[in-house]
């Protein structure tokens, strides 16, 4: 989907956001932002946090989400704090996505793995870690 990126005091500009969901990692949603064929950032977000961000402000760390109105539409405002720069500040970007589109994507993930039915295979994870995979 096309979203709008605002970095610093600059105006918003369109970038592509690819949302994906893997049932093997049922609590996470991955979003990859790209522009002109270049990946700008890749974030893994908590699926329920994204859902909550559509209706109320959530997040206190590197990711903060909240609903916003813009004209006739509703947006999901996603604020990301990244690595530190040399002056001690941090990279900071705000992305605006149409809330309806994000909500439709979340609906599809819930059809795949309904909330409360997530399964985490801890034994498989530990086996992978112990064997170095």
From TrEMBL:
- Which positions make up the signal peptide? none
**CC annotations in GO:** cell septum
Q: Which GO terms describe its biological process?
A: division septum assembly; sporulation resulting in formation of a cellular spore
Asked if the record carries the keyword ATP-binding, the reply is no
The record's Pfam families line, in alphabetical order, gives:
SsgA
Assigned protein family:
Belongs to the SsgA family.
Q: What is this protein called?
A: Regulator
Can you name the source organism?
Streptomyces caelestis
